[in-house]
Amino acid sequence: MNIKSPFVLKQIIEHRQLFTQLVAYIEEHDGDVEIPSRLYRSIVRQAIQTEANQGNDRERERIRYTLSEDNLLRERLIIRKDPARGTLVLAPFVVDMLRHFDIGRMRGLSQAGLEDLRDGLNQSLAAFQELPIDRENDDFTDELRLLRRRIQDTLGKMQESIAALEAQGNHLADQVEQQDVGSLEGAAETRRALENINRIYQRYILPALEFLDPKTRFKKGVPAITAIRRIAKLAGESDQPALNEEMQLSANAIQSYVKDIDSLRLSLERYVRQDRQQRQQYDAVERAFNAIRLATEERHDDSFRNLYIPVRHVAIQSPGTFAGIKRMRFARLEWHDIDHRADIEEFTDRRIEELRSQLDKAGSVAVDPARARRSEAELQEQLRQHEIQALLETWTIPDDCQDLHASLHEYLGSHLDDYTLNDLLEALDWIMALPDFKFHARFQHLEIAHGELALSYHPLIPREAPAMEITA
User: CA-CA distance, 9 to 21, in Å (whole number)?
Assistant: First the structure.
């Protein structure tokens, strides 16, 4: 008996709560489209049993014939069946339909998926640049049909991706807010939810923002929106105003999704920062506990006496022991275009004159030890700033610089003795005060670790003028 595909799809839709198990299997196996035949048969048996429990014998027999593997194979709803390996492959549109019914299991567009969409649009741009834009030309008509399919595919996948990311993000955010962090189980669940939020943020949100940004630079090709607008420009130059307008509207429709993605980024960024801070706190507490335990074991004499740790023990004196428990803050210094050598000489001359005057009046000079140490520290700080400024005056920012923090870190680390992350912050303050400084932050979190401290930052990349792609 051959039952047509509309009736088969109707049965699948009516029992979609069961058939979404196929989508769950595909997602759990990283998109493997081969489904075990026994899993499909089990789902069909569950559907038959559901009708049998309701006393619908006629409907039960209808499901048995309609959803049989041979019938789906004849109707091209199963595109391949391998009895030897016990696997089958459903038609892609059937899997997409089931994903539509189970948005909670849908995944956002990853870097690979977005790159595939961008490559397709760049291929269309290359084809339009080579072909004459003439609707009487069959090759042009084929390429135009393919371009429209690629644009619709991009719009559809972006919409599904946003819906899936929003659903997953809200679900994980609710888990974080509702868990009892006072219990070990609740804290573990919260940590797992925060890790999943961070994975969504890094794997799906940031790549989507780069995909939708027409200013993003790629090693090969141009951004997807730029490709469509260049096609629109070619159409306008070939006296095809309707096609020009169609492409411009398509580019605007794709770019409009940046608002939704940015809204998701803002809603998840708080949890991403919380996840990073929590990991740092856990690491800091663990390091402190291990250091204190080691020190206690060294002081233990098996009689439970003298269990106190000396204040000057290395475990207490080291700032890394409690790193992350309380954030270390560095005061912002505005010292661009300041001649530190002249300041030091002026301070020294004035101080010597004061000491000579005191010596003439009292016959001796009393030096406050605390003030002497403070003055020495200030002098060393000013000398350090002058040394950093001298290095930066001879340094040129690399032309291919895509991370100003990392470039400065590498340069200062190789030219400064006893280099610290505080030196990096001093250098950044000086460079950012330059009048020709043209860098902006990127939607990404990176970290530089040096010694016992780490710096979390948004990478600074060159700011470029936007390309003029709008046509009349």
Answer: 16
